Amino acid sequence: MNTTPSTSSSTQTLNASSITDRRIRTILLALVVLTVVLRMGAVFALNSYTHPNPMEHKGIAIALLRGEGFAFNEFSYYGPSSVQSPPYPVLLATLYTIFGTDTRASYIAAMLINSLAAGATTWIVFQLARRLGAAPWIALGAAALYCIWPTQIYAVTVAQAISLITLTTVAVMWLFYVSVDTRKLTPWLAYGFLGCLGALTEPVLLPFMALSGLLILFWPRLPWPIRIRNAMVLFFTAVLVIGPWSYRNWRVHEKFVPVKNTVWVNIWKGANPYATGTDRLPMTDEVRKRLEEMRDQDRRNPDFDAARQYDMLTSEQRLELDGQPEVIREQIFRRWARQWIKENPREFIELSIGRLVKTLWIEWDNPKGERIYQISRTLLLIGSAVGIIIAIRRRIRLVIPLLVVGSGLLTYTITITAARFALPYEPLQIILSSLAIAWALSRFIPSIRKEAVVKP
């Protein structure tokens, strides 16, 4: 007679769990849709397609359509280029083919792709938070914050790869843990492919991907056959995804260039007499005053935001650079940067500290850094600082996320930074901030205290 109540109770518990899971899936799906809607709304509200800022991607995409190969024109030299890597210029060339070269329709399509990538990121933010050890409602909170976060919304309003890089960065963190937890091959294959594709798009991910190939060999509680299998899979995935581009670079440049041929030019931009830590020059008081009178749409005008480090090159320096291929220009910038750093070690250290601060907080020489951007970055910095303390106390695993972020921060600190460089790391900051918010709520609502975090 005792069996029936027990079975009934078990069934009710199972049904309650199913309802909860169903609600979570419904809310998460709604957040994914809302993510896309909000971002496309921002695209049309700001008329972003009129000032898409495709950087070097546009010139390379046009060269591809003309049948001239992966080429770029700079310093009076037009030829094979590695100033950017293939994924985004090829995507832009495809959109130009479908919707017309340099048309509004092509850029709206590019920003729609960015928005869809952001929608996928919302879903992965939830999955990553759960995999790290957060309770379901905290993970949903993180997904909701990512959905509405201003800097992440703004990120899709340019024809650039930053939203796709953010997606791959978050996916890499999540898939690594899925793979080592389940010991299955499929998530590791996805990890290797997306990670290498992300590194091909943005080389700052490359050091971590290389490190993870060694790290997996020493991952605790993982059988040796799986460790060796994963290391080999990652190696061959890198050869298949990045190898062809590296081989092409060796053929056209006669030099080993893994991804981009811009290491020393970026170091020079951050280490010269006019360096600010970014590619921009310092904003004058007159410019700041004009900004206060401008609408957000006007701040996006590239004609207004045009002053760059290249503008400060002397006539003699330009003469030395003109007509030289990229590899020769890299050697010239290498000589200039090393000489300046040798003669100004203290200034270089100060600039490096400034770059770290600008990456973690705000790029204050960016005319598009309006107040909402400053507030968003400040809140994330405070929230993630509190969240990381809570995560350590709760033994939430952060090894992989911190290695991903740490390797990126180190790269930007010693080379150059920009406002967009911090965007791929904001989802992790949002997760940590959600932990901080949960902790704060638990101080006032005791009933949720025990449900705030679960151990992985």
Characterization of this structure:
This protein is mainly alpha-helical. The chain is built from 20 helices and 2 strands. It has a two-stranded antiparallel ribbon with strand order 1-2. Strand 1 (71-74) and strand 2 form a beta hairpin. Helix 5 packs across helix 20 (426-444) and helix 7 runs antiparallel to helix 8 (185-201). The two termini are 38 Å apart.
Oligomer kind: single chain
Low-pLDDT stretches: 1-10
Span of the ends, CA to CA: 38 Å
Helix- and strand-based class?
A: mainly alpha
* Main sheet overview: 2 strands, antiparallel
Order of helices and strands: HHEEHHHHHHHHHHHHHHHHHH
General form: globular
Calculate Rg over CA atoms.
Answer: 24 Å
Main sheet: strand order: 1-2
Mean pLDDT: 90
Number of helices: 20
Please write out the topology:
Elements: H1 3-45, H2 56-65, E1 71-74, E2 77-80, H3 87-99, H4 104-132, H5 136-148, H6 150-155, H7 162-182, H8 185-201, H9 206-215, H10 224-241, H11 243-253, H12 263-269, H13 285-292, H14 296-299, H15 315-321, H16 326-343, H17 345-360, H18 371-393, H19 399-414, H20 426-444
Antiparallel strand pairs: 1-2
Briefly, what is this?
The chain is mainly alpha-helical. It has helices at residues 3-45, 56-65, 87-99, 104-132, 136-148, 150-155, 162-182, 185-201, 206-215, 224-241, 243-253, 263-269, 285-292, 296-299, 315-321, 326-343, 345-360, 371-393, 399-414, 426-444, and strands spanning 71-74, 77-80.
